[in-house]
C-alpha cells in the first residue's frame, strides 16, 4: 500500500518512539514513575516517547503546533496545523507489564482531523487513516463489524477509577449495557479500544472523561472504517465533553439509547 507523505512522517515518528517504549517495557521495574494526581501515573517511558515524537514531527514539519498529553499545548507559527499526540496510551497497563498500550498521533488541519495513527509496538499493529482515504491495519483495509444487535455484540468500555470524579452515573450505564450485550471488555487503552472497533474486533465502545489526545486518531479510524462516533449527547465534536460512544450505525445508536435508560428500581 502506498502511503501519503504525511502518513510516512507519522509512521516514522511512531516507529522510533515505539522502539523506545518496547525497550522500556522490557525493563519496566527500573523506570522512574511519578504521580500527576490520584491514580494518575506518568513514567520516564511516556516522556521519552513524547520527546522522540515531538522532535521527529518538528523536524519533518517545522512550525506545526502540538497538543500533547505531557507537554500540553505548544503553539506553532503555522496556525492551520496541529499534531494531537498521546505518546503512551495505557500507562497503567505498561507499568503492570500488560502489553496493551499504544502511541496515538493525529494531524488536525483547520480544526479537522486529517490523518490518524495508532501503534502498538509490542504486537507491531499499526492502524492508519486519512480523511477520505479509508482505514488500515498494517496493509489491510478495515471495516467496522456488521453485527446490528447489541445481543450479539462485544462492547468495550473504560471503567472510572481513583481520581476520575464521581462514578454513580457510570454504574447505571454499565448495568444497562451489561443487561443487553453478549460481552463487555475493558482494555485500559482508549486508543486501542477505538482501533479495535475500527477493525471490527469489538462491535462498539463507550467511555467518559477522555481528552483529545486519547481519541483524535481513533475517531478518524472509526469513521474511515464506516463507523460512527459521538459524545453521549450525540454531538460530533467529542472534544467538547470528553465522552465517546462508537460503533457501526446500528450499534452506535443502540448504545446511545441504552446507556441513557433510567435506573430501574427492582
Ligand atoms: P493514559 O494511559 O494515556 O493516561 C483508560 O480507560 C484510558 O483512560 C486510557 O486511555 C488512559 O490514558 C486514560 N486515563 C488514565 N488515567 C486517566 C486520568 N487520571 N484522567 C484521564 N484519563 C486517564
Ligand atoms: Ca496519562
Ligand atoms: Ca491516554
Ligand atoms: Ca498517555
Blueprint (SSEs and pairs):
Elements: H1 5-26, E1 33-37, E2 40-43, H2 44-60, E3 64-68, E4 72-74, E5 78-89, H3 91-95, E6 102-109, E7 112-120, E8 125-130, E9 134-137, E10 140-141, E11 154-157, H4 168-178, E12 183-185, H5 190-198, E13 204-207, H6 212-224, E14 228-230, E15 244-247, H7 249-259
Parallel strand pairs: 3-5, 11-12, 11-13
Antiparallel strand pairs: 1-2, 3-4, 5-6, 6-7, 7-8, 8-9, 9-10, 13-15, 14-15
Helix pairs in contact: 1-2, 5-6
Protein name: Inositol-1-monophosphatase
Enzyme class: hydrolase
EC number: 3.1.3.25
Polypeptide structure, described:
The protein is α+β, with helices and mostly antiparallel strands. The protein has 2 domains: 5-141, Fructose-1,6-Bisphosphatase, subunit A, domain 1 (Fructose-1,6-Bisphosphatase, Chain A, domain 1); 150-258, D-Maltodextrin-Binding Protein, domain 2 (3-Layer(aba) Sandwich). 33% of the residues lie in helices and 29% in strands. The chain has helices spanning 5-26, 44-60, 91-95, 168-178, 190-198, 212-224, 249-259; strands at residues 33-37, 40-43, 64-68, 72-74, 78-89, 102-109, 112-120, 125-130, 134-137, 140-141, 154-157, 183-185, 204-207, 228-230, 244-247. The strands form 3 sheets. It has an 8-stranded mixed sheet with strand order 4-3-5-6-7-8-9-10, sandwiched between helices. Strands 12-11-13-15-14 form a 5-stranded mixed sheet, with helices on both faces. A hairpin with a 3-residue loop joins β8 (125-130) and β9 (134-137). α1 (5-26) runs antiparallel to α2 and α5 (190-198) packs parallel to α6 (212-224). Bound molecules: adenosine-2'-monophosphate and calcium ion (3 copies). Residues 42, 69, 91 line the site of one calcium ion (CA). One calcium ion binds next to β5. It catalyses: a myo-inositol phosphate + H2O = myo-inositol + phosphate. Its EC number is 3.1.3.25. InterPro entries: IMPase, Inositol_monoP_metal-BS, Inositol_monophosphatase-like, Inositol_monophosphatase_CS, Inositol_monophosphatase_SuhB.
